[in-house]
């Protein structure tokens, strides 16, 4: 199995296209998108339609659910709320229906054991797990709950891998809004080896930042997002 993992696309079409093109060149057998598909970026309709056309399995992130449903939870403040409200206005019933029909988790079987992919936490896409700071028993408890050896946990926008005993957790980073301090689209490649282990490789891919910046400005979305796309982090 050779699996390409993308996450946190955030309505950034040039970044998504760069990621998919790189995965095609890698000969990836399957691509999986682990939320947030929309939110923040200027191309929500185009991103959803491309994922749909490509037949890519997707799980929802918090932004996707807030666009698709009026959730009875705390209201987001600042640029997140502004861009989510704008995103709702851009989508037709077709795209909203796509978001509403996403399953909260995606399961894969590898030679080394089951892999479960989700956004945030297994129970709540809005509840982010700090994979770096979490106690080993917390990681192992999560893997036990989802009955998996491997977990792909999107939400931090920074590529990360951690091994706890025989369990392994990954964060693929962000395709469209990377926050690791370097601009570009983050992609995770997972591959079975002959010993039944899961090999991993993180890619950082350039894309047309100028086009995204132009479109953000044209739609009068928050200016800070232009700097995030160009710098790979929020300005200090």
From TrEMBL:
Residues 1-189 form the Calcineurin-like phosphoesterase domain. InterPro entries: Ap4A_hydrolase, Calcineurin-like_PHP_lpxH, Metallo-depent_PP-like, Pesterase_MJ0912. Gene3D superfamilies: 3.60.21.10. Transmembrane segments: none annotated. GO terms for cellular component: cytoplasm. It comes from the Bacteria. GO terms for molecular function: phosphatase activity. PANTHER family: BLL5683 PROTEIN, METALLOPHOSPHOESTERASE. Belongs to the metallophosphoesterase superfamily. YfcE family. This is Phosphodiesterase. The lineage of its organism: Bacteria, Thermotogati, Deinococcota, Deinococci, Thermales.
